[in-house]
């Protein structure tokens, strides 16, 4: 079953007399449980497409069906509801609240979902444990390393048990070793049956994905299976992370 289906999606921005076609015509289908990387030069439309797929934005024209539901013309409120239920989002800059602890940051989406405090704490602790950070629950973002911050962001993205994890340049602010640790975590998330889509500039990061879609000037340039899947360390050696 296709969890994501876009049909001839376009996104146009009008800036004074200029019209910017960020996306011209994008048709893709992603099955449940796939692991996809969006690549392409700067300005090719990767973030625009991710934001539409993640229901943070709507296309100017075309159709987007998410998990069997047409979301192309939904209102802000309806989109927010779909987003809460279906999507976990991870950003390059982590986007954690600086004054809140790891536990509080991870628990935040559960407030909107209507869980009581005890349930929020329990679920958030479990999500932190799943990213190997239950021993950092009381730390604030500035008391964590970059990789740990991103793992807290991943825990927050997954705490509501969404069907899809979306990540826009998740390793863009991380060094190579830490980037691979985050990819290791993505592999674990994918191997549990989740659908994962990430945007990356880096070929070695894209190689973790099982399918690579390259964009250029708002169009799909290529869309192929990755013949050379890079395996995460922990899956190869059976070694967990600290
Ligand atoms: N809100 C906006 N208003 C006007 N133009 C925009 C807006 N957002 C994006 N664009 C334009 O749309 C095009 C695609 O932008 P997008 O951010 O999707 O690129 P990208 O592939 O993610 O690039 P990068 O690799 O640099 O992040 C660019 O030309 C950009 O300037
Ligand atoms: Mg971008």
From TrEMBL:
One of its GO terms (molecular function) is transmembrane transporter activity. Keywords: ATP-binding, Nucleotide-binding, Translocase, Transport. Gene3D superfamilies: P-loop containing nucleotide triphosphate hydrolases (3.40.50.300). CDD domains: ABC_MJ0796_LolCDE_FtsE (cd03255). Coiled coil: none annotated. One of its GO terms (cellular component) is membrane protein complex. Residues 4-242 form the ABC transporter domain. Pfam families: ABC_tran. The keyword Secreted does not apply. Belongs to the ABC transporter superfamily. Macrolide exporter (TC 3.A.1.122) family. This is ABC transporter related protein. It comes from Fibrisoma limi BUZ 3.
